[in-house]
Amino acid sequence: DGPSENNSGRGLASAGQAALEEAGGIRVSAETSRRIACDAGKVVMRHDADGNVLDVGRKTRTIPPALRRALASRDQHCRFPGCEARRCDAHHVKHWADGGVTKLDNLVLLCRRHHRAVHEEGFGLTLDAEGQPQFTQPGGAPLPAVPTAPAWTGVPLASTDAKLAEDGIEIDSQTSIPNWDGERLDLPYVIGVAWRPGENPGTEKTA
């Protein structure tokens, strides 16, 4: 969804009101219902004045399969800054309940965690002039696409280097190379060395 002023959707209640009752009888908030409706299956049911079901329509998807594939091909993963999750929902930047269209340029992939953050935790999402998603924090401050790198002064690992030198430990380009040559584990040999029936672990034989 977009900024909070767009939360008065048609067909869905305004923010803060219970709007959806799921099959299990669980009532959820309006924003939760809007998040679920972003990318879901829909079944239209007609009722009479007494609540009796008159007709049940076919199940359809909010996002058609072909459009879903195009979106996945474009975005590849969740577009929230720093997230590369690939199991994602298709999020309407301008919700269809507010008149937003279900087109590629109004959709963004968001993982379930960040889809919830945008709908229910106050994070904002808009598109810039080039169609790139721009996120804001709950307070309205921009959320950079790449976090600012920490500012280092001097030699960052100077204290670590001094401690290693004090302990006589030298680390070079060969330190992380293991002695293992890649041969398969000789399991019978390992068992023969490690398991000696009749001996108590941790005790030494005496002559």
Describe how the helices and strands are arranged.
Elements: E1 18-21, E2 27-29, H1 30-38, E3 41-42, E4 45-47, E5 53-56, E6 60-61, H2 65-75, E7 88-92, E8 107-111, H3 112-120, E9 124-127, E10 133-136, E11 142-143, H4 158-166, H5 187-194
Antiparallel strand pairs: 1-2, 3-6, 4-5, 7-8, 9-10, 10-11
Helix pairs in contact: 1-3
Portion of residues in helices? 10-25%
Q: How many beta-strand segments?
A: 11
- Mean pLDDT figure: 78
Strand order of the largest sheet: 9-10-11
Structural class: alpha+beta
| Number of helices in the DSSP assignment | 5
- Give helix and strand order, one letter per element, not per position: EEHEEEEHEEHEEEHH
Poorly predicted runs of 5 or more residues: 1-23
Largest sheet: 3 strands, antiparallel
Distance between the termini: 80 Å
Any idea what the radius of gyration is?
A: 29 Å
User: What is the beta-strand fraction?
Assistant: 15-25%
**What best-fitting shape do the alpha-carbon axes yield?**
extended
What does this structure look like?
This protein has 207 residues and is α+β, with helices and mostly antiparallel strands. The protein has helices at 30-38, 65-75, 112-120, 158-166, 187-194; strands at residues 18-21, 27-29, 41-42, 45-47, 53-56, 60-61, 88-92, 107-111, 124-127, 133-136, 142-143. The chain has a three-stranded antiparallel β-sheet, with no helix packed on it. The protein has a two-stranded antiparallel ribbon with strand order 1-2. It has a two-stranded antiparallel sheet with strand order 3-6. It starts with 17 loop residues before the first strand and ends in a 13-residue tail after the last helix. The model is unreliable at 1-23 (pLDDT under 50).
